[in-house]
Amino acid sequence: MLNSMYSRIKEALFPGSEAIALPTLDGALRANRRLDDAQLMSDTLIDCDDMIAEPNGQLLVSAGDGLFRLTAPDYSAAHQIYKATGRIGALATDGQNIYMAVAGQGVLCVRGGEVCAQLDRVDDTPLHCVTALTILRDGRVALTEGSAVNGLDNWSRDLLERRSHGRLIIASPDLSDASTLAKRLAWPAGLVEKDQSLWVSESWRHRVQVYPLSGEAPSTVLHNLPGYPARIAPADNGECWLCVSALRTQLVEFVLRERDYCDAMLESVDPRYWIAPSLSSERHYLEPLQGGAIKKLGIVKPWAPPRSYGLLLRLSSQGEIRESLHSRPGGEHHGITSAHPMGDQLLALSRGSGRLLRVAIP
Fold first, then answer.
1. Are 225 and 203 in contact (CB under 8 A)?
2. pTM above the 0.85 mark?
């Protein structure tokens, strides 16, 4: 009761103060170089997005409009096995079929290189922007739609417009039937099945929600994250790895509250130079904060305010952050969009650098 009263008084005296209380990178979140020091497996995956493992241990990676197969154990060579008419994003497989999200086409089910099923509408509404896919234990397909307004490449616009037009959807294995489990989500970007529920990362609200498959009310397992949570990869013992596409900053939080300024910026400024998070940095002098981030000889300060960042979080079965892997502002492996644990190794996909990384996990 006292805490609730304190929060109301604080909000009355200092409007918006609760919204900008960003968590510090300390404890299990303490900054390190584990992603920058990771083993480089492949550096040719330009515009890479998601990856899944096949039963034989080979890796499938979506990059641009292509689906690529990388052969174990070194994963150094990528061979294109499918070419779509739009950008391929999220992936999932049941061992026989490959499910892929394709811009402009919704979700395709591919078997033997041929499309055998397609889901492009749910509840009479087109599937506009599928961000994550997973196969449930009963064979059904779960997916998240980030936004009904903005596409995958306009995710920063969706953030700056403060939209919440995302959905959580459950479909039959053959994609012939689908229904919406939750709507009005703020860019849901990742999901994993745990204990008859779905854990869903909600990027613009900086949290991970739990949605029971029985249809009961959702609950929050992780909130006020330091960045924008994205895809979730299951691990052993009920744990999981949470990708964080970029860090939150005080400047971006401030711009999000200044609606007139934000609207004018969207209309008049080149999107490359918006005050917004990014998956990589060109280190151009026109980028926000770049002047203050660079010290002598063009070196970016490791502690500089991040425009882009690399971050992976290891979560316990209860949703507690146990450890983190970082690529700081001066690093290269930013924009982590997918992860896959393999024994004592962790594979990570950096869309910002177009690289596949391998990290040893003690």
1. no
2. yes
Please count the CA atoms within 13 angstroms of the CA of 29 that sit on its side-chain side: 14
Residue 17: predicted pLDDT: 46
Average pLDDT along the chain, 362 residues, taken 10 residues at a time: 48 50 91 95 92 92 96 88 94 95 95 94 93 97 96 95 96 96 97 96 97 94 96 94 95 94 95 93 75 71 84 96 94 95 93 95 83
123, with CB counted inside 10 A (0-12, 13-18, 19+), is exposed
CA separation for the pair 233, 335 (Å, rounded): 16
Q: Are 218 and 205 in contact (CB under 8 A)?
A: no
CA distance linking residue 57 with residue 51, whole number of Å: 12
With contact defined as beta carbons under 8 Å apart, do 239 and 315 qualify? yes
Cα–Cα distance, 178 to 142 (Å, whole number): 9
Tell me the pairing of strands 227-234 and 114-119: unpaired
DSSP letters spanning 36-52: TTSEEEES--TTEEEEE
> In the structure, how many helices (H) and strands (E) does the chain have?
5, 26
**DSSP code for 273:** G
Structure tokens at 232: 């979730």
Q: For residue 61, give the 3-state DSSP assignment.
A: strand
